Amino acid sequence: MANLLAKLGIGGDTTLIARQIDINPNPSSGQDYLYVEGDQVGFMNWLLKLLGLKDPSIRISINDSFITRVEEGKFYTVSPTSGIYGFSSGFSKDKKLLILAILLIWTIIPPIILFILYTRSGAMTASVSCFKDGFGTSIRIKSGLTGKQLQKSDFEDVFNALKNVTSNNSQFYNK
After folding, report:
1. Please, what is the Cα angle at 24 between 156 and 163, to 5 degrees?
2. What's the confidence (pLDDT) of residue 106?
C-alpha cells in the first residue's frame, strides 16, 4: 500500500524528475557542490500542478556553509555543512525494461520503445545526514522522458561532491 501511495505521489521517499542538476566536486568560492531542481513524481502531484493547486518543486543546494532544501517554493530547511556526519549516493537503471525488450524481440516496435525507455531510466539517489539538528535530506532523482538524462558519470560526480563537501567542512572528519 505504501508503494502504491508513493507512486501516486502521496508520502514515501522523495523522488524527483530532474529539471536541472549542477554537480561541481571542486567548486570555486561561493559556488555549490550540488544543486538539484525538479518536480516530485506521482499522478496526484502532476494533476494538482496542472490544476494550479500545488507546486511539486523541490530544490536542494549544498555549498561550503549550508545544505538548503526548498519545497513548493516556500518551505525552507537549512542546516550547516559542519554538521554532516554521513552521506550516500547510488545509481541504477530499470532493468525490467531491457528484459521486456529482449523477450519481445520478435516484434519490431515494442522492443525499440522499451530499449529507448531503458536508456532514459537512469535514477540516482543522494543522501546527507547531519548530527546537531538531526536534519538529513534524501532524494531519488529520475531521468524520465521529460527530465535531464542521468548517466553513471553523474553519480560518480555526486559522490565526489558529497565526499569533498564533507571532508572540507564537517567537524567530524580530519582535515
Report:
1. 55
2. 63
